[in-house]
Design goal:
The protein has a single domain, classed as Rossmann fold. Helix content is 36%, strand content 18%. A nine-stranded mixed sheet has the order 1-2-3-5-4-6-7-8-9, sandwiched between helices. It has a two-stranded antiparallel ribbon with strand order 10-11. Helix 4 packs across helix 7. The longest helix has 24 residues. The two termini are 37 Å apart.
């Protein structure tokens, strides 16, 4: 039998019994990590630099690996300004890719070059099942979308992606040239969902940007019904939070600044149905949950844009500069920098783009901050040669992780 609290007090002769206290920030973070099987403590990092190279004038790069859960390794590229500034540490930025994206994606590479020239360290890495984490060693495979399993396996997959982000933070925080108090991250599309979760539990992130998403909605909405293994089932599993979007973004507010930026005509993630009224309502719910507007997310739109990595555009770059203090770009510099039309740039340089997004409406229409960014060959961004990869793939590929995850669930 369910009793209204006031009736319960009356039934007890007016003796008021306090309701259980709402979980605090630390407790909620622990609950979310446990829900997704995120190791606590995180695995030993065991970071390794496989090689160093110069991808563009003014930029140095390292091909690196670091550990993630279940004994697996993450391959990535670390971009650095060349030369490094003397006498001070630099901020850093993590690229969290969308479906089909990895360290080979045009926007991961472009972010590395442009933001390294701004004086930042930039870490890009292969999403689970893509690039050197795919059994085919190819991009755009969407290998993890082929995964079949129950809610527990789906939660483990989300936990892998969250752990990847947290280990990226650990990697950057351990670098001698990086200021560990000025690490930011950008999540695009699927990456916006992953970073929404990771940023809620990872207190070391100074600033987060969610693009091509961030419009976390109510039960049976877009995100509940989206790709089941990496988004739908993991999002549904958070029912213990109550109002999931408000709870997640309240945890972000406890962590630090958050910007949600999207194209108004982004039909990929149902954005036309989640415009200003949606975000204003969500903002009010987060304020009510926290009891304060301090730190609660900001949002904005690019009027004619669709699905794009908007942290490469001027409004978001200006916001990031305020949060992280770029060594080489101040507000005036950002406002005066020329833009690069990505579709034209890709055609001129021969850089491959995902066919789903190589249109003017979507990623091809991006006006990215920066110019004189050279093209690149795919293998120039590989951590391992094909022969080396064969020797290491048992600790890299999504298939290998899946076997370990299924065994761990028994």
């Amino acid at each position: 039998m369910n009793l209204n609290p006031l009736r319960l007090i009356a039934a007890l002769g007016g003796l008021a019994i306090s309701a259980p206290a709402a979980p605090g920030v630390a407790e909620q973070r622990a609950q979310i990590r446990a829900n997704y099987f995120v190791p606590d403590p995180l695995p030993a990092l065991e970071a390794k630099t496989q090689r160093r190279f110069a991808p563009a004038p003014g930029v140095a790069a390292e091909a690196v690996t670091y550990s993630t859960q279940l004994g697996m390794r993450v391959p990535g590229i670390l971009y650095l300004p060349d030369p490094l500034p003397r006498g001070r540490k630099i901020p850093a930025f993590i690229v969290v890719n969308g479906h089909g994206g990895d360290k080979y994606a045009w926007y991961a590479y472009f972010t590395g070059i442009a933001y390294a020239r701004a004086g930042m360290a930039v870490l890009t890495y292969d999403q689970a099942g893509e690039g050197e984490r795919s059994a085919s060693r190819k991009s755009g495979t969407r290998d993890h979308d082929k995964l079949k399993g129950d809610e527990i396996l789906a939660r483990r997959l989300a936990g892998l992606m969250i752990t990847d982000v947290m280990q990226a933070v650990s990697f950057l925080a351990a670098r001698p040239e990086v200021d560990a108090t000025r690490i930011g991250a950008g999540g695009y599309s699927l990456g916006s969902f992953v970073l929404a979760l990771a940023g809620a539990v990872e207190s070391r992130l100074r600033a987060c940007v969610l693009v091509g998403g961030g419009n976390l909605d109510e039960p049976n909405g877009y995100w509940d019904r989206s790709k089941p293994m990496c988004q739908g089932l993991p999002y549904r599993s958070l029912g213990f939070l109550g109002d999931r979007p408000a709870a997640i973004y309240a945890l972000h507010a406890a962590r630090g600044p958050l910007l949600i930026w999207n194209g108004r005509v982004d039909t990929v993630v149902n954005m036309p149905k989640t415009q200003d009224v949606f975000f204003d309502d969500l903002h009010a719910k987060v304020v009510a949950r926290r009891g304060s507007a301090d730190g609660v997310f900001e949002y904005g739109f690019t009027p004619e844009g669709s699905h794009r990595p908007y942290w490469l555009t001027r409004p978001v770059a200006l916001w990031l500069e305020q949060q992280l203090d770029f060594p080489q770009w101040d507000e005036a510099a950002i406002r005066s920098l020329p833009d690069t039309h990505i579709l034209a740039w890709a055609q001129q340089t021969g850089v491959a783009m995902d066919k789903l997004y190589a249109t003017e409406e979507r990623e091809g229409g991006t006006r990215a901050m920066g110019h004189d960014v050279p093209g690149y060959s795919r293998e120039s961004l590989s951590v391992f040669s094909p022969a080396e990869w064969e020797k290491n793939k048992a600790k890299l590929t999504f298939d290998a992780w899946t076997e370990r995850a299924r065994s761990a669930a028994k």
